[in-house]
Structure formats: C-alpha cells, structure tokens
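pipeline/complex-builder :: batch 7 item 3
reading input block
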Amino acid sequence: MAKHYRPARSLLLFTLGLIGLLVWAFLPGENHSPKLGLDLRGGTQVILAPKVAVGQSLSQEQLNQTVAIIRQRVDGFGVAESEVTIQGSGDTAKIIVTIPGETSRTVVDQLKTTAQLNFRPVVAIDFGSPQPSASPTPTPTDASSTPSPAPSQTPAAQATPTPTPTISVAPELLVPPIQSIDASGDFADRFASLDCSKSEILNGATDDPTQYLISCEKDGSYKYVLAPADLVGTDIESATAGLPQQGAGGWQVDLLMTSEGAKKFATSTQTLSAQQSPNDQFAIVLDGVVISAPSVNEPILGGSAVISGSFTADEARSLAQVLKYGALPVSLEVDEVQQISPTLGADQLRAGLIAGGFGLLLVIIYLLLYYRALGAIAVVSLFAAAAMTYFIFIILGRGIGFTLTLAGVAGAIVSIGITADSFVIYFERIRDEIREGKRLRVAVEQGWIRARRTILAADFVSLLAAAIPFYLSVGSVRGFAFTLGLITFVDIVVAFMFTRALVTRLASSKWMNKGSAMTGVSPARLGVITSKQEVN
Amino acid sequence: MASLSQLGNGLYRGEVSLNIVGRRRTWYLISAILIVLSMTTLGVQKLNLGIEFKGGAEFSVPLAVADDSSVTKARETVIAAGETPSSVTVIGGNKVRIQTPALSTEDSNALSAALATSFAVTESDIKVQLVGPTWGEEVSKNAARALVVFLVLVAIFLSIYFEWPMAVGALVALAHDVIITVGIYALSGFEVTPASVIGFLTILGYSLYDTVVVFDKVKENTKDIYGGSRATYSEAANLALNQTLVRSINTSVVALLPVLSILVVGVSLLGVGTLNDLALALFVGMLVGTYSSLFVATPVLCQIKERQPASLALAKRVAARRKGAVETQAAKPVLASGISTVSAAGPRQQTVKKTRSRRSGH
C-alpha cells in the first residue's frame, strides 16, 4: 500500500477540499464570520429549567409547547438573532434563551412571568394590608366578565376587614403561595395575618391547582382565599385585547376556550353565577399571584367570554398576553442569568485572539527551531488546520447555529498543542527510522505507518473526551467540547492528507536527501553516519 | 535544541538511559507526597467554588481604575441597597466584582441600577450573572456523570486496543493527575467555575492521550520479547520510555506554550475570567499529565505485567542468559541505574549494534 501512495493526488484532494470549504464559507450574500457567542459580543443569556410537580415527568410535547411560547415572547422583544433552544431532554432539559446586544434588564422578568395560569373561584376577599379603619369603599380594580356588562365591581366589603390581626402566625407561614388541601386548620388565621404590602409576597411561586390558595392581588391591594382551580392555562385557546364591537366602553379581552376548557368553564360559571359576592368571582392566578378577579353574572356556555372593565389599552394587552402566553404547561425556574455588555464581549474576544495568536507564534518558533524543514511543514499544516477550522466555524454557524464562545476559543487554543503533537509524533518516528540507518524516503514511509497508529489511537481518546461532555452537559462546557472534538477531527484530516503528503514530497527532493542540518532529518545530526559506514 | 537532538539520539540508542521503571519507588514516593499534600490542602482549605456552584449573584463593574476605595464604595452601595455582599474584589485593576447570595431578578436589577449610579457607569456595562441554587448541583452532577461514562469507555477502549494492565496503568495515572490538579486549585484559591470543570475534562483527555502515545511505544517494544530472552518486560518498557522521552518533552512544550499564553494574556488583559480558570487547570494538569504518563502509568503497568506468569518466565530466561553472558565477559546489561552515558558520541561499538538489533525486535 505504501508503494502506491501518491502525495500529489492527496495534496490536490486536500487543496480542493479546502477551497471548497472556503467558497462555501464565503458564499456571496451570506454571513462571513463565525457566529459569536454571547460572551464575545454581549447580550443576555437566561437558562430556564422547566419544573413539574413532584412525581410527574416532563413530556417532550410539554417541553416543545413551552419553548414555542417562550419563543413567541422573545420574538416579541424584537431583537434580531434572538434564540431559544432546548438542551438535554426529559426532566433535566433546559431552555436557553439568548438575546444579543444591549438588552433591558427587565427582559428576564418578562421571560419569567411566562408561567402557570389558573382560574380559581374566590372564597373570600379582604384588603391586602391592614387598614386604619373600616375603610371607605375600596377602589375597584377588578374587571367583570360579560355577557353581563353590569359588574358588581366592589370586592365585597362583606368580609369585614380586620384591621389588626390579633392572631399571631409565624412569618414563614405567611409567604404565598399558602396552600392547603381543604382550607382547614390555621388557614383562616394565616389569611387574616397575611400582609400583601411586603414585596417578596408578590414574586410568585409554584401554584398547585388542586389545592386551596391564599394569595394577593398583583398590586398588593387585596388578598384572597381561593378554591382549587376550575380551569388551567392550557384550557385557553386564545386571548386578544380589543375594543368592543359596539364601540361602547373601554378596552376588553376576548377569551376563547379549548373544547375541554369550554366545558369546564360552563360548569364553573354556572356554579359561580348562582353565588353571592364575592363568591361569584373567579380569580385569574398567574404563578400564585392574582392578576385579576372578575365576577360572573351568568353561566357562560359557548366557550368564549369577554373580560371587560376599565382597562387601558396596555392593561388589556398585557392581560391578553398573560392569558395566552402565560398558559405554559410547566413552571419555569431561572437557573442562570448572564448579562454581558458588548464592550466586555469585544474585550474577551480580543484577549482570546491575542492569546491564540501569541500561543501559535511560540509554537511556530519552537517547531522551526527544533525540526527545521520538517518544522516548516508542521507550521504550514497548522495554518491549514486553522483555516479549515475557521471555515467550518463559519459554515456551522450558518448551518446548525454553532456559536463560538470564549470557552470555544480556549478549546481552539488548547487544540493547537494537540494538533501539533500529531506532527511531533510523525517527525519523531521519521527520525527514529533514520537513526536506524534507513534512507530518508524509506524512513518517511515506515515512520508514517508507525505514527499513524499512534495518532489514531491518541486522537480517538481525545474525541471520546470531547464527545462525552458534549452529550452530557449544558452551556459553556458543550461549546468547548464541540470545538475540541471538531479540531481533533480536522487534525486527523490534515495529518493524513496534507502533512504526510508534504513530507513525502519533500523527502524526494535532492536537498532533503543531502542531509543538510537545516532539513531536520540530517543523518549526521541524528548520529547515523558512522554506523552507516560500519554497516556498508 | 541541538543538544536535545543529541540527547534524543542517545536515548534512542540506549546509550543514555534513564532508569525510569526500575526506580519506581522514587516516583511513587514523589507522587505520594504530592497526593498527600493535595489531599491535606483540600482538607484544610476548601475549594473556592464559583457562584455557578454555590448559587448567587455576581456583578462586575468596569471602571477606569479600580482600587481599594472602589471596593469600599461598592460594599457601601450594596449594603445601602439592603443586600449583603459576600465578596467584593478588584479584578485586573479595572473592574470591581461584587458577589452576593442569591437575589431575585427584581432585587438584582435594583442593585445593578444602584451600582451604576454610585460608580457613574452605564447600567448595561455592568456584567450581571444570577445563578439559581440548584444549577451548580446540576453542573457538578453532569460533570460527574460525564466522568464516569468517560472512564468506563476509555477503560474498555484501552483494554481492547492494548490490554487490561495498560488500562489500569492509564487510569491510575489519570486519577493521580486529577487529584494533584484539584490540590493546586485548593492551594492557589483560584475559583472553581464551569470553565475549570472544562479544564479538568481536558486534562483527562490529555493525560490519556499522552499515556496512549507512550503505551503505543511500549506495546511496540514489548511485542516480540516473549519469544526471546534478551530483555525483561520492564527493561523493554523502560527503553520505550527513553525512546519516547524527546517526543514527550516536545509535545508538552508545544501544548503548554499556548496555555501559558492564555494564562499570561488572560491575566494581563482580562483579569480573572473563563480563560484563566481554564488555563491554570490545563497548565498544571498537562504538566502533571506528561509526568504521570512516563513516571506513574508505565511503572504501574510494569508492576502488573511482571507478575504475570509469561513475564516471570521471561525474567528467569533473561537472568539465566545474563548470568552466562557475564561469565563469558560479553555484553553488559544496557540498563544501568540512573543516567549512564556509555560514551559521549562517536564511533559506535559492538554494544550499539547489539542494542539496535535487539530493539528492532525481529
């Protein structure tokens, strides 16, 4: 096989391949630089973990649905090149949201509010914080649901406000969501003692729809005791904000239920409409916090409803958005938030490039000093590998959305050494063969056969070391592993098709065979002249 | 350079021979001391885990010049905002880094606004990182899982490609490298971040990569020895180590130069960051990895191999042959202890020819 090896053909193939990659990477009208990760160009990255109730597991469908909803939200921010991706699967899946450039700090809050939505009948209602006296009529904040445009908007002062709770309840029991299966025990006391003016109470949390809930209205004005949910977010087909057709009144939100939701809603409104205030109200609860609590005057059977009231356009839109996009099948927990300014990103990129360039320069000097002519081949090979890697970065950036992160840059820098090592192994084998007294051309052939096996075995371990973290981790570790694996692959291609061919080619030149000290394979310097004389 | 080439020639021929395998007790002692030191350091001084593992919030404020007064100012701002600073440090002379226990996004926004006001910088220039308390646990769990899967696959691969004693030798060397690297982290107080975890994984890969290269040469040299009675397994393995020593040195230099450059450039341009966390792990790990391939993996391998019946029989034959040889005043054993230069350079004598023919192994 060695006899049939044609270096020219291999070189030609490699060069054509490289040119092919170059053309592909620099196709007109496409993006011509690698896609940079967030840490190199600035932006916000949020890693969200979907959480389901204990004992349940996350289905792929739930996950896809969640991602679709978040994607809609992110697209709503209007930042180009924003991305929502899933990493991992099953219960350990993560949703990674990346928004490049300078973004507002509230982005994370907006993402996070895409959470669990429940519709719960109201059991009791009271002022959110202790009132100085039996108050004047509280300003109504609640909308009402049509078809009964005459809402009983006053959240019933009938549950007489208790200005100073006399029962003391441990404070840690007073942080919503306060839930109970049957609303017994100290549930009433906890409701009485709850003070909605404390901000942490309004941050939201997981809300189990099958239990009773004590919670506050979003602005802290009222607190509620709520029955288990009649309807959950997924029962809502759509929600839109708009003005009533007849033009009378303010903004409203039109609700459309799914067929199953319509049935549930019909049953629920039938019961509710027969009740006295405040028990005719249902609360729209998002993440355990009451968003709105309209009252129901008539059963709504058709599966479509209108929530009207004194909404502004913004309030109506935001309620519609909560109803529609808030209908996530799971709740989300923020695992990690990273916000990096574009300047810092540019700094990191520059530092990475300088470190890489400087490291490469040092390696080049060392290779040239030690291996001379062979070293020059190693340097050319390193550049070929670098060019190939760069083109592949660009192509993958376009094709599969591969992004180059700082960790990836570090991986690339580290790979310089591992790539150069393949050449070192090869060259040392050639020199070993020459020390054995073999002629250069034979040494190059024999050296390759021995080096090839070592290079493959060692690179296989490297690939293994890259592939496993790639499959088993999330975030920066993945970026690094991918780069490392890719470069190991490039290394094999370059060593097999390019370096070997160049060395073989060079070995047939007269100059190399003269054995000058500059060749790096000088028999004299490798101490063989004398033994050769002996042997011959 | 030329002298390294000369050393390479000498090592290859066996004229210059480092008795690496024979002196395993020395290397084991050195490694044992390093490992005990690492363990002790770990016991005394816990690893400085980054917020990715502990959970919490981190704010990095870029400034023209950051010094002690900026630390004080940052601390006051954080306290005024009603939060507790868990650490405030100056990074790279132009950044103040503030860490606090976990914050809600609202509180974090409020704090970053407060910091922007008090340092008169644009809020969006402040780098913010919030990490939930369970994230670090998951990162560690993933890393541990990756490690176990990796080790199992590597052990299988090495057992198939080489043989099981080599898999054992390689894994012992690997454990050695990781323990020492972790010890260096504990000692230096460098922060352990996901980037350092990446570093550890790379070290695993590199350590094994280097061991595979060395073992491949050992395998080649020991392939045919069982037929003859010229050298014991350990001697053949030792010659392989010597022959591959120059490669090991060159590879380490070439691999470490870029890492060193990350470390230098990273520190001077960026202060602490992903690159540095990574580079320190890599630098120490690669250095130890090269050492362990030669001085730990192979001696362990030889110890196992020498106990196998085939090797015992071989050793007996070699001893018998040597005894005869000494009686007839012929060739002396090539593997002396320590560095023994048979002769500097110059015309080769009988011994050399013998060495060569024996080494070529056919």
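note: Residues 392 and 419 of chain A are 16 Å apart (CA to CA).
queue -> next item
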